[in-house]
## 1
Amino acid sequence: MNIIINGFLDRRTNHIAQKVLSSINVETFIFTYNYFKPNFGRLNSKAILINWRKINFMGNYDIDFNKLEPLDEDLVDAMRKYESIFMRMADRLETFKNYSYRERKSLYLKHLRYWNDTIEKKKIDLFLSQNVPHETSDFVCYCLCKLKNIPTIILCQTHIPDTCLIFDDWENTDYGLVDEFKKLKTKLSRIKIDRINLSPRFEKYYLLQTDKSKNITPFYMKKNSLIKVGTKKIQAICRKLKENPTVYFHEGGLICRSLARRSIDKIMTKILMNFYEKNCTEFKPKSKYIFVALHVQPEMSTSPRADVYVNQIMIVQLLAACAPKDVKIFVKEHPNQRALGRTKEFYQDILSLKNVSLISRKVDSKDLVKNSLAVATCVGLVGFESLFQNKPVLMFGHDFYQYAPGVFSIRTKSDLENAVKQINKGSTFKPKDFKIFLKAMDNISINGTTDSDYLPTSSLTIKENTLNIAQAIIKKNRKISEKKCLNII
């Protein structure tokens, strides 16, 4: 088997990749690394290691491109949809420098040429990703695999602690969830809501979310003291130096440019957010409104997961056009949004729309959810949490909870018009049905953490986490192999 492995960049998650590789018969595997080159032991001779920073920021694969197969019109045309997503996704590269249209296009074509040549010549059988591909180069590789009907396995962290899902397509995150939900709805139809049993981690999350006296803030939204932030950064630097003592010498230019741009971005963010706050309208809880919770950008939640709605102004424009005249649209900026990913013109476009108002970032989103008719989001946590409060959600992206009761998946203007009509008539859903959905999710999910940022809050040991996730990947790969055998027969 020949595999492309995306992610698993640090030592805590790299164990997962090592466990999977040791359990299958692998001929060649391609692995992108960040600050340190991983040691795969006896499998080192089968590894092709690529520096993630070099390829992402510069398209430098350390090879002679003249030896690669050239691109042609058919392939470029077949990838046209994904090219447009890539061009916006490249915003995330601008922590390093500005990328013009020509530079983005050049990077895209380099990635396309390298991965097309590699997939064909190395006879790739599987693409395995730690997360939804969203770092530009990995997205191109993933899309090529889909185009060539090469199996893909994607892991995805959910909002519930120590819980992740496994699927094969970021646009279709079902993987048995819908069938399990339908089955449980029939099975539990006569069972009272308080008799529906969840696993300890799901039950704990459910109780926290339904307890209206508690205001829960996700760990990544909490503001830490300067001392705590500084300590974490020093620890990260020490860890990187321990893993690779020369890392800051080899990548000094990248790091210096990035630090300089972040300093400028802080100043520009302050100016931009001052403009935003000056143009906010006072929040009136008794108003009849739909709450739009903007996503921080650039991020995976909108690129690729929101597809065309990565342009969040389109969401607001659609709502302004489809909502009844007596329903206002309240738009709140994400607390972590920076100047990178947002412009003054974006806010001006919102302000130009009738019945649309900007709401201060100081207003608690819980209050905006509580008094709203519905919540509009791409794939955000605010949408998932709203369901616990029995609030309908207008989802403009692709995520696991798009299949939950109370969620309206929006792709077209017609979808939104129908959804708004139902919501305005008082359409709601049964809390019991949502708890059954959680039960279905509980049954098919993996008890593990795939996102490194979530590991400090995990209740699992690294060994337990590695084993749970690796076993799920191996099981999924076995099913893929069995399906291949059946197709051959």
Note: Residues 252-278 form the longest helix (27 residues).
## 2
Amino acid sequence: MNGNGKPAFDAGQIAGLDAAFAIVRAVGVPEDKIEDADRRQHLVRGVAAGLHRSRAFLLVAPLLLFLAVTYLVPIGGILFRSVDDSALQTWMPKTAAAFAQWDGAGLPDEDTLAVFAAELGQARKERTIGRVANHLNYRMSGMRSLFNKTGRRLAAGGGPDAAGNWREWLAQLDPRWGRRQVWTIIKAASGRYTQVNYLAALDLRRGDDGGVARQPEGKRIYVKIFLRTLWVSLAVTLFCLLLGFPVAHLMAGLPPRISNWLMIMVLLPFWTSLLVRTTSWIALLQSNGVINGTLVWLGLIGDDERIQMVFNLTGTVVAMIYVLLPFMVLPLYSVMRGIPRSLTRVAVSLGATPLTAFARVYLPQTLVGVGAGSLLVFMLAVGYYITPALVGGQSGQLISNFIFYHIKVSLNWGFASALGVILLAAVLLVYWVYHKLVGIEKMRVA
């Protein structure tokens, strides 16, 4: 300190502060605001910290942009498409407005039907009728043929005479126009957003009275598929834990030279195509495959008693366990490697049995790896597609296979998006439960 009570600086420190002060002036801080060297040093440190944060943000900005484009934007598109119902408003706006004012009782009035017929004929001429017809056909089978048939007649100049009315003319053209359900389907599509896709994904539907009702018994399939997907994912996770825990425990206790070779064997499947690994199980599990052939050769089963282990749920579970097992072993091994083995030896020396020492000393310390591996395997299993598609057959299909069907085959993207959103919500629920029970911050250890 000098005689004035100010901190004393040598020539080098003063030169450094003057250089930093030049940076402060450059960013717009007035000189008269800086009273002494302490204030100057504080401001310089603040500016330097701000520049450091800016540089750090610029470094991660490409990654954030990549995640936004490839992850957040597609999820937003899926959420929007699952509730989007703007086809009728886009291609037949006057019809949508007219049916929005209809109260839904009985059949539409003549003015509404006249607007509908005029726009339907015009849509046929402009070749946009297929967009509306396909959209409504997802709601009720047969709507595409009904719209195309009626549109052709209207585009050719068909319609009632001066003394007739649209209701009778449409009913004579096709009796389905006399059914109230057809018109309520059109009215339900007159809005911009809809809940129909989510109701159908949960095996529900809108009744004629506008209320929510269950689908007929023969059409209740998606809730069963969701439950099957969750059950298979839990079973695969449990079997991966039972098989992976001993392997990780063995690797963690061996010398590095041996454990490295075992780690290579664990990672070896990653170097082989998933398609090759999955199809190889067909050769192993089929009726004339290696496993059945060995059982027959050993005399354990007869030649006419071969076990059907592929193209069913069994094949799906077995192949998924094989593919996902490394994702359980790696988190377990990373945690077990950091647990001192001397702890269990100390517990045994103090009178505990080996089983008690394992259960009360060693096992609790591995729960972080157990939780991380289980969460990772479950989240991968719940959205698996290629393995059930190849070895699952009809009884081994999971919800991802139905999502693919509606995207690629039926082209019902709205319904496929609703299935995907429900699956995403289930995964987020599992993630939230894991965070409440274990703590997501503990996953960093694994």
Note: The chain has 21 helices and two strands.
## 3
Amino acid sequence: MNRAGISVLRRSFTTHGEPPAAEAMAEHIRQHFGWRVDAPRYGETVELD
């Protein structure tokens, strides 16, 4: 949480659609919101902490 008590998004993923569409959506989110967004490849795993 930030100082205002609002939950801060540390990382998000786009997993819907074909890879070019998922990456385009991730880029849109990055530009519009400034979030860290990944479009993982098929079979890719990510360790969350």
Note: Strands lie at 12-13, 37-38.
